[in-house]
Every structure is written in C-alpha cells, then in structure tokens.
Write a structure and sequence with these properties.
Elements lengths: L8 E9 L10 H17 L3 E8 L2 E9 L6 H15 L16 E5 L4 H14 L14 H6 L15
Antiparallel strand pairs: 1-3, 1-4, 2-3
Helix pairs in contact: 1-2
Length: 161
C-alpha cells in the first residue's frame, strides 16, 4: 500500500448503509458474503481497496479506481445485489430490502487521501463500537498499520474526540 495517488488513478470514498440502519452486518456470515461480493465485482471492474470498515449498519471505504472510469456506482450496485440475492431469506435479517437506496460517495483529492483514510479507520471509535481502531474486527486498520501507515498507539485523526 502506498500513499501516493498516481495520475492514472482516482480515489473515491463511500458509505453504503443498511436499510433502516438494521445491524445485519454484525453477523460474520453477512460480512463474509459482502467480501465475496466485492471480490467478484473487482474481477470485472478494477478497484483497489485503500481502506474499509464494516460496521453493523454500514460499510465505509476508500477505493482507487482507473482515472478513465467515470462512474463507480455499478460496482456498488453489483455488490449490493449480490448480498441481497444471497442473504434475503436468512433468518433474522430484514424482509425485503437490505440496503438503503443509492450510496453516499465523493471524490477524494490526492492531498486529502490521508485524512479520508484516518476518518474511515476512526469510525468504529467515533461511534462507540471500539475503544481503539485496532480493536474493531472488520477494519483494514491493522493491515495499514503493518504497512507502516500508522504507529502503534495511534490516537485518531487531528481533532478526534
């Protein structure tokens, strides 16, 4: 993993939210299905994960995409459809929709990449789900820390409470 964003790629930050904020992503088998969905999507449409945090009711991510790819939405649509197709009849999951319509996403300028990375990894702490980023199971924080992007004991983004 590298911090430099090349001229041939662009960064996109996003948040997918479950329908009605239902916490169905707290189930390990649901997270596994989500991972499978994104692996299949990446085989058809290139993407590189720089950061990911799966919360009980949302997925936060930071991707690198080819600069000439104008619209990342088909990737999310395909992943959401895959999860819905495979999970909609599981006991304990909401009937009908699993996801809120659409996705919140925005371009991240290269000089704001680090800020986006930090905010995504801090999200479980901000929401009171973990005491430290490395304490959240479904996070790329430990991978980024192993790559040298975070020191041991990192205390959050600037201004974090």
């Amino acid at each position: 993993m590298h911090q430099e964003v090349s001229r041939q790629e662009r960064c996109v930050r996003f948040c997918l939210t479950t329908h009605g904020n239902h916490p169905w992503l707290a189930r390990p088998e649901a997270v596994q299905r989500l991972r499978t969905a994104f692996r299949q999507v990446a085989r058809r449409r290139p993407l590189t994960w720089d950061a990911a945090v799966v919360l009980p009711d949302a997925v936060h991510g930071l991707w690198r995409l080819p600069r000439d790819d104008p619209d990342p939405r088909p990737r999310w649509q395909a992943a959401k459809a895959h999860c819905t197709r495979h999970l909609r009849n599981w006991p304990g999951l909401p009937r009908g929709r699993l996801w809120q319509p659409g996705v919140h996403w925005w371009e991240v300028e290269p000089d704001r990449w680090r800020e986006a990375l930090d905010e995504i990894h801090w999200e479980p702490v901000r929401r009171g789900l973990a005491g430290r980023p490395e304490g959240w199971r479904y996070s790329s924080f430990r991978r980024c820390q192993a790559a040298g992007l975070y020191p041991v004991g990192w205390s959050g983004p600037s201004g974090a409470v």
